[in-house]
Every structure is written in C-alpha cells, then in structure tokens.
Fold each of these.
Amino acid sequence: MSSASSSLANSPSRRDFLKTAAVGGTGLLVAFHLTNGVCLQAAAAEADFAANAFVAISPAGEIRLVVARSEMGQGVRTSLAMILAEELDADWPTVKIEQADCDPKYGDMTTGGSMSIRSSWDPLRKAGASARDMLLTAAAETWNVPKAECTTTGTNFVEHRKTGKNLGYGALAVKAGSVAVPKDVPLKDPKDYRIVGTKRKRIDGRHIVIGEAHYGIDTKVPGMLIAVVARPPVVGGKVKHFDASKALAIPGVKKVFEVPAVEMPPLFGEERKEGSGHQHYLWGGVAVVADSTWQAISGRKALSIEWDNGPGADESSETQSAQLAELLKSPGKELKKIGDPDSAFASAAKKIEATYDTPFLAHMAMEPLNCTASVTDGKCEVWAPTQNPNGMATALASALKMPPEALTIHITLIGGGFGRRLCIDYGVEAALVSRAAGAPVKVIWTRDDDIKHDYYRPISRHHMQAGLDANGQVTSWLHHIAAASTDSTFLGGELPDTGGTEIAGTGLPAGSVPNYFLQQSFLRTSLRRGYWRAVDMNWNHFAVQSFIDEIAAANGQDPLELRRQLITTKQKPSGEGDNESDAPVNTERLLAVLNLAAEKSGWGHKLPAGSGRGIAGLYGFGSYVAHVAEVAVAKDGSLKIDRIIVAVDCGQVINPDMLEAQVQGGVVFGLTSALFDEITVENGQIQQSNFDDYPVIRINGAPRVEVYIIPSHEAPGGIGEPGVPSTAPAVANAIFAATGKRLRRLPFQTKELARS
Amino acid sequence: MNSMNPIPLTVQAKPICAEFAAFDSDAPLLSVLRDNLGFTGTEFGCVQDLCVARATAVRSR
C-alpha cells in the first residue's frame, strides 16, 4: 500500500471518473473517485481504472455505498448516503453503508481537515445521478418507450409516466449494469432537493444508543488476548531493566515483554530528510498480555521497571514558559510582511501591545486509544479505529518490514477522533505486541495512558502590537508567534517556509492594514505535538480575536464595528484559505455571519451589570462561522456562560441536524479547553491523568448553544472543526465586556476576575 | 481469590451462567461484562467513576 500523495501522471484519466460493471449478476455497480488527482495503484485486472468508492444496486434492490471515510461521531456515513440518495432519487433511508477496508484503490482515505463532505460532494452527486440515468435507460429499453417518458419515483422505482408501469431499481439493476456510463448527466436543481438539506436521523443512531455499535475497542477475534503497555513516563525514555516475575504470577497474565521504540514514517506520505531531528518514534515500553483487560492492568501494576528517562526529564512547564519568553525577545522567522511595520508602529499616535498564552492540550476522545492486531505467518491484520488508514499502512509496513500486500486494515467505528487518531502509533504498537505474543492481541490504553502519551496541541505565546493613527485607524499590526510546531514532530527540522500547520487564523488584518508583520519562533520541546480539532486556527485565532477587541477598547469603539472596518475587500484569507485548494475569503459572507450572530444575540442591547457579550468570527475549512458569547461574572470571580450564539454559512448544508450537533460539539470542545484544561509537565512527566484533573464540560455545565444557519447553495464547506476556534476568544471578549478585565491566557484564570 | 462457583446472572434479559474460573474476584464489573461476557455496550472510559461511561444498572435478588 502506498501513500496517497503521488503525481497526477499515473492517474486514471478524468474521463474515467465513473465506471460501471455488471459482475456475475451482482447488478449495477458504479465506481467513482471521491477525490481527483490522487494516484491510484490499479490492480492488473482493473488496470484502466481504480475507483475509491462504489455504489452498488443488487438485483434484490439493495443499494449499497462503500465509503472510504471514518465515522467518528460526525455523522459522515449518514450525510454521504444522503448525497447519494438525493441524486439517485432513492428512498430514504434504504441506502446501506459499507465501511471500506484500507486499500490503495480508494486513494487518500484520511478523515480530517473537515474534508469528507467537501471532497465527496461532487463525485457522490455525479455517481448518484449517473446510476439513476442508467436505471432510466434500462427501463426505457425494457418497455421500449422513449427514455424521456420515464422518471424515478423517489421510492426506488422507475415509472413510465404515460402508462403508470413501473419497475424497481433491483429489477433493473442487471440491465442497468450493461448500459454505457452516461457523460455529463445533469444534477438536480437544489430547489428540488428532498433529502439534502433536511433533518435526518443518523443511520447508525439506534445501534449507538442501545450499545450495539461496534467500536474499535469492542473488537473480538478468535484467540484474542488483551494487552496493556507500560510506556516511559518521560518522552524519549527507555526501559533500562524490568522484572516481570510478580506480573507473571497473576492468573491470566500470559506474557510480558519489551516493546521496541521503533522509528515511524511521516503521517501523510511526506518526504523527510535524513537527520531531520523529528520525534516520531513509538513510545516503546513493556507489554503485559493477558486473557482480560483487568488481568493485564493488574499485571502492569505488578511490574517493576527501571527507566532511563533521558534528556526529556529536564523539561518542565516552567522551562517551557521561560523559553517562550526568551524567543519573543529576538526576531522570529519572517512569514509575512507588508509595508514597513516596524517604523509604522514606532511612529504611531497610539500603541497597543498584549501577550497571549495557550497551553498544551490533550484530545481525550471518549473511546480510549486501542487497536487489535493479528500478526502471524508474515501477514498482518488489524482492526483499527483510525482517521488515517494510509498512514497506518505505511507505518505498519515499515515497522513489520512487510510488503504492503501482507497488510489488511479494517477501519472500525470510532468513539471520537479530534485528530488524535491521525497518528498511528497505537496501531504499530498493537502489531508489534501481537507479533511478539504470537497471538491476536487487542492493546487497550487506559485513560491515564491516553492522556500521558498524547500528541498534544502545541503550547503558544503571542506578542501582538498595533499602531493607530490620530483618528484611531489601525496602521500597523505585528504578530509574533512563539509556539511548538505540530508538523516538526513528524517531519523534523525548522518550520517550512509557509508556516506549515501553524499560522491559520493569523490573516484577518493582513490586507486591510497598510503595515503588517507575521513572524514565528520555534519552541523546542520533548513533548510530541499533534493535530487537535481545528489545529493552529485555535491558538492564533484566540490571540487575534482578543487583540481586535483590545484595539476597539482603546479606541472606545464597538468591537463588531471595528471588525466591520477591518474586514474589507482587500482581506486576505484568515484560515485555510491560505491553502491554495481553498477558495479565497468572501468578505461579505464573513460579515454576514458576524452580523447574524450579533443580531440573534441582541448585540447592542444592554445586559445587567456583571454580564457581557463578546464576538469572534472566522473563515476556515471552507466555512464562515461567528460566535457571540454571553457571560455573567459574579463578585467572587466565578464565571457563568449563559449562552453561545453561533451563525454558520457553510454553503449547502447536507443534514442540518448533524450540522447543529457538530457546531454544539465544537463549542463544548472549545469551551472545555478555555475553561479548564492544560497539560503541564514536571521533570519531563505529564501531570494530568484522568477526567478529574483534565475535566470536560458535563451536560449540567454546558451552556445553551443556539445555531443559526444561513441558507446557501454554494459548495459545502467543512463543519467538523470551524465551530471550535471562536469559542475561547468570544468568551474572553465577553468577560472583558462584563468586567473590564482582559484574560489573555487559556485556560481562563477566573480568580483574577474577583471584585472586592 | 478465585471463585469457581457459577454465578447465575441475567444481563440484558439474557440468562447467563458465568463461571469465573481463574478470575480475579477484584475484577471490576466492566471487565467481566466486556471481556468475559461480551457485553460491549458498557463502555471503557476512565475506569475511575469519573465519566460514568461504564454505568450499569444492577438488581440483585
């Protein structure tokens, strides 16, 4: 299995976008690419075409959609099926979803970057419309009538209008399979949509609610043992010596052995230079393999291990903070410069400066990390709750020194990903444990393992400066980010020229202020960094959106009014718009969500003393999202979030119910981190261990979240991530409005808000 | 430490005769339900009564 990122040169031609086959009476099978421009290694038998998803209609009338994306709660199985059903004019919910195993024929199977709907929208519609057209052709030929007299009924039937004759999709499937694939089939007019854009229950909802859904951690295969691994307490630490005798004395404990800290390849098929200084190694440690989870955990408790902690043991939150302060004292790497920001700032009539901090954060998915592997006879089969099947395949092949053909990777339902499951360490570890145990093994990470061995959202500190002229116009904007780099964990080296996955959310004032400077400094840390829902947009957006309010306050100006001033037609993209595959920002759409959130919140109407409203808005992941937070701060400083109003323009909405859930979940995710959480380190060891010292908002603490959607038939944007980043700055701005106190550090230190 | 006695149980309306041979009597119900009896609707979340994902309604007769 090769990585997905290869040249276009070997790609099937675009004319081969859709293919059909009637194989051995299986009925109509339409195969299609979910993404163009991905090199697919076609097997010899299908050398001219390899598709990355299939629509199949069996003679029994069953409609099946094979999906090469991971379901992790975002409802992708339901929404992809809805897109297909719409153009196929199928009955809902008769479309059955089949989860694809990892296979190069599916191309890039990564589920991340809020991309699934964005990349599936066009191909799935075309596949549905083409299949429908072929069914119409088959019916017309069967009845020997003009095709134009045939139509679909929305109930999986084709009907002859004049006579009322009808045939089911199943009855037509085999014949339709022999019809040539139509070219340029027209797609539905959005005004005729009857599935897309309507609230639909998730197709797997019942199974999840009654506890019958099968998550990765529920995997059971014959002869399977269960393992836990004692991993080094300090990143980069190694086992010096261990004594397994007490562990082996525990009933049910079968084997105890050392797991090597193998080097792992980059996650997404990138190039990595020799000696790059990357940190992508398996943790290593000591595995305890037993009959049951409890026996394995008991066995691990009974282990006696002497660790060689290595140089990581010198690191602490204090040393990190000192390093960040040091980094901000000298110039960083220049990422974007417009005009002459330094002298413009020096000569400004009014100068505003502030420093913002965001901490390391863990992912804390409800389903702890786990993977089941069976490595025997030169073959490896894994059952992985992964967002990154291709990356896992590459890493397994490398760690096991097996050819790609020897690997079978089943993708399970996932109990929360949030980016943690883009990393593949837990899959490699399970495979190495299974091979050493000589049996299929499920490796389970306890909550403590999960939090202490995460790939953390990077820590960051931002020094912001703005110069204003005598009229209060912003004439210079300087932003210096000191942060640990996410990408360098996997790729090593210094920051790439573009800033990598590090600068989304910085762009708002660029283009609308004449002098702009963005620079970045690189914190070196032993902690491994990873992709955390909305990634860099979170920390940069917190600084930028808080700072805009500080400027407004210095000007005695309404924060929304200042945003309206700064968001001009010269606006540069603020987020993923920096990515060339994304459309440039549409400032009207950005202003529209800000205005809608403001309107729905009653912006401008006074709140009682001690209460306040704050606003923040973004363009990112192809969507426009704005938040207004309403908070109340008591005299003792205790903070209550009364409600969060969110306005969304993500283009065409597929399932408004799921969209609302994603935005509400995003707010809860953003709020949890803003109010409570930080990963701290002493002597190289992570200080947090479970939900008691790294809490998440409970249902009784969650605020009312109101979601307003701007109706649109623009191409769909992503929605998994863009609900998160504006949450923290909207709350910070609301706290300022309520108290006049500016909290510049996450999580909020609300004791600073106490009034005498 | 090891209970060899069968314990009559009814889980999700299914009668189960569980023999906890060679099984640590300290094992949490979570491990017994998931690993021994195959009821995976009881979730492995924090295993410390913090997240309550393993909450199970028990009635003894």
Amino acid sequence: MDSEPRKMELWIQGTLNSWAEQGTLSRERSTQLHLSIAKLAQQERKNRLTRKAFELVAGIIITCIWLLFASCPVAAASYMSSPIHSTLSPQIRVVSILAILIYLLLKHQFQYQTTNSNFEVNYD
Amino acid sequence: MAEDEFLRLLKTEEGKLFRIALAILGNEQDAWDSLQLTALKAWNKRNTLKGGTPAFPAWIKKILINQSLDILKARNRQIPIDPLEMISIIDLSVTQNEQAFSIIWDLVLELGSEHRKVIALRYLGDLSLIEIASELGISLGTVKSRLNTAHTRLRQKLQDNSAKGES
C-alpha cells in the first residue's frame, strides 16, 4: 500500500497532468507555430534540391576529367597524339585543378552551412 | 518523419506543452518562446527520435523541459508571478477535478515562484530531486524542503476545505 506522502505526490501529479492535458493553444498561435515549421521544411527541400543539382554538376565535371586524363584509353590516346596537347595542356590542367578546388571548396562550404543551420541539441 | 506527420503530432501535444512551460516559467511570453524553440529543435532533430510516433510525446516534452530550463538559466532572474495571469491559467482549465487543481494552484501562488519551479519540474517535468537541484542550482535539501512545505501546506488546505464542507 502507498504511504500518505506517496499518495499525496500521486494526487498532485495526477491533478497537474490532467490540467496540462486540457491545454489548447489559440488558433492564431497554433497557426504561427505550424507556419514556422512549414518554412523550415520548405528551406530543407530547397537545400536538398540545390545539393542534388550541385552533385550532378560536380559529377559531370569529374567524369569529364576522368575521361580526359585517366581511364579512357581512346580519349587519352587521342588527346596525347593530338597537336593541341603540347600547346593547350598547361591551360587544361590549370582549369581542371581549379575546377576540382572550386568543387571541394563549395562542397565544404555547403556542408558547413547545412550543419550550422541545425540546432545542436543533446537530450540523451 | 514527414512534415504532415510531424505537424499532426505537434498539434496533439502543443496545448499540453504550452501549459507545462507556463507552469515552469510563470509567464505566457516565456512559455510561448519556449514552445516555439522546442518545436524548431524537434523538427531539426526529428530523425533522432527513437521509437517512432508513440515516443513523440515524451521526446518532445523532454526537449521542452530542457528548453524551459535553458530560458530560466539564461535570464537568471526572478520572474514575478502576476496573480492575474495565474488566475487566468486557472480559468483556462475545464477539468473534472478543477477544484483540486485550484487548491494546488492557490497554494503555488501563496508559496511563490521558487516553489512553483520545483513543483512544476517534479510533477509536470518528471525530473528527479537530484535533477531539479542540479538544474536550478540549489541543494538537494532545499528541493526536499520546498516539496515538503508544499505537501504540508496542501494537506492543511485539504483538511480546512473538508472541515468547511462538513460545517
């Protein structure tokens, strides 16, 4: 059997929780709350779309570089034997390196923004 | 968790969460701030929710309690209880045990904001005595003493009420 203090605790707890359960927000405040979540959700969708587009462009750039310089024997042979090889090679290399650097920079920047747009909460 | 599902669950809990924050913080503006921040944090962390939909109420309540405690700490000030506001809280309640709630809340009004915080965290926030002491920066003895005072005074009030009823 519960002791008297325990009964008192249970009674207070039950009464206060029952009061809290009956709570309602005004329609205006409820709408405001839901709108703020909807805005966040919209922003998230936009970020996701941007990320996909960015990944697609980056993928295309990397594929082009790969085809040109590394794994495609035909392209590499053709490129190496072509007359523009000796004249344009440094420029192409510079452009490629710049493209990779820009890609890495943008990726890092995007990840940083995505991480920092979220609140850090640890409720464990 | 999808947006629709999240908003549906939030809708079912928001009124309760607001009242819990109100009981802890003692005024509507702070309670509203706490609820808004809680909703935003919950949305951003929704993927960390374990246990799915059934776990949502307890999960978001925990976020709210922590958020309310953060507000208490950040403002680090005594929030005066506006008696009129507290009366309005009571007026909002349409509970079957309205009288019982009024008795408790009248007592909270008499005892003041420090007792209110302890009572709200203990009975609405489900925090242990040690957690309350730690969060409010007071000793365990003080927490026990405040709860004990509340119990004693409540018992007295109930006896008075029952004596009035009999006479």
